[in-house]
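Thread: quick sanity check before group meeting

JM: Hey all, I'm pulling together slides for Thursday and realized we never actually wrote out the predicted structure for the chain we discussed last week. Dropping the sequence here so it's in one place. If anyone has concerns about the input, flag it before I start.
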Amino acid sequence: MQLANIFYVLFALLILWGIKPQKLGQWNDEVMSLDHTKAFLGFCSIGIILHHCAEKTCAPWMPPLMIRPGLEAFVWAGYLFVASFFFCSGYGMYKSTRKEGAFRKYFRRRIVPMLFPTVFTWIIFVVLRYIRKMPFEGDPLQWHPHIWFVPVLMILYIAFFVAFGLIKNEKVSFAVMTLVTLALAALFLHKELGTWWCNTHHLFLVGIIMAKYEKQILKVLKKGYVIFLILTAGVTVVGFAVGNYWYEVCEKFGFVYDYDKSWALRYFAQVISAFTFAWFVLLLGMKLRIGNPALRFLGKMTLDTYMLQAVFVFVFAYAFIDDKVKAFHYIKNVSLYTAVVLAASIAAAYLFHIATKPIVARIKGVDRK
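JM (edit): ok, ran it. Output follows.
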């Protein structure tokens, strides 16, 4: 048994600790509450860190001599965790703006606070690139290798303001959000930024729809619960396999594999599996209520954790960003590397969260707690 397997156990325990199954005929009515979704997103933030650690230890595109087995199950799983972030963001955004005057100070409350961890970590990467004498070429935004999530989310937030803050007809509002979602996918695919830029952002729109029709949707899901649970689980598994292991699928079933011709199939399989995964998780949450001190702690600083973990993922990896760039402090042992990245990311995120909390509260115009 590899020592790295302990992270699978700990990851499972993180979500299972304190879980409360609902009795037959009963439902978790708090499934989409702020506390419940934050707890799950805290879990997802750890999943994303493990995904990025896997990309730097056992991903198939790494130099063969640098591959260290142990976290293979997380190599392709990152987008599923990110899908939940977009889904909950869309849901929360719609719910929180149903009150009178909710769009006042919208940008101060929604977008400006996101800039703190983003700009802070971007500056760190600029400094580290300078130390390693890396050329400052291309899009400056991407000098931070994990920054993509924030600009995509910001665009969606701005689109939401236009669609629901300025436009009073909700049919038109939903049409605008749909067009923006499709346009972003087309733009990012055209620019070839990578499928991770556009294989999950549609869940923001899905989250908005869930918030708008929550009662009706939950009623339907309860009536066909077992069918929907099996269906979403099955489609997620198949979509995940096709989207990420199409070569292996072709090998197993004797299909002809063509990387270029199969990109659309693989991309849409990821888009569909991200969609069904979000619903699968929701269905599980309807019968399994999660929550424990660790998840509550992690759920308070998910964006800080996401942005800061990137620094440690690359600083302790076999190379810094580019395979040809010398590592800062290579931790060869997979278990030690993962443990250090997790510990450093969580500690740094907590300290950053505490340090910036008064400033963010002042910008938002809310009382500190």
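AS: nice. The first helix runs from residue 6 to 16. The chain has one domain: 3-364.
JM: adding both to the slides.
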